[in-house]
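Q: Structure tokens for this one, please.
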Amino acid sequence: MHIVCLDLEGVLIPEIWIAFAETTGIEALKRTTRDEPCYDTLMRYRLDILDKEGFKLKDIEAVIGTLDPLPGAVEFVNWVSAQTRLVILSDTFSQFAGPLMAKLGHPTLFCHELEITAEGRIADYRLRLPDHKRKAVEAFKSLNFVTFAAGDSYNDLSMIETADHKALFCPPERLIQERPDLRVAHDHNELRACIENALQLA
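A: Here is the predicted structure, written as tokens:
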């Protein structure tokens, strides 16, 4: 039995925070897990900026509504789902992901939750559990799944390292240099080939 575990942003959909930064002109919000390996540090940084600028959830939702999956992502998700099991392991939030997951055909998603005030301000966030991507892959392995994992950022490394088969997807050059042991897929066709080779789905 096989299972494919994928990151979401940067693999199947655009980086939501970068899209919001480009819309609002706030360059500081372009910082992602490609730049800051500590997710808690990154999120505290983001929430401080939102509070300072007075942005609410509805402002981010308006930007998300303009986004589409990355080119080739829908076809790729359809192919994986037709071949084997697919689960998305993401550090995004259910309040952000909903519209884009609908465009991907609603694959299974494990992510986090935002705490929203009555006024619509993002007050805090709740992790499903720390390092949930790695722990999910470990759980699948304990259920005798042969696991494949891929992601694009530092926060994906623990699940990638835990998986039986693995790849980086369009990672930053710094990560490629730091982890020459990991195979790199530069587009969804190459990622499909990685999965086919690893799980013998061809």
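A few notes: The radius of gyration is 17 Å. The chain has nine helices and seven strands.
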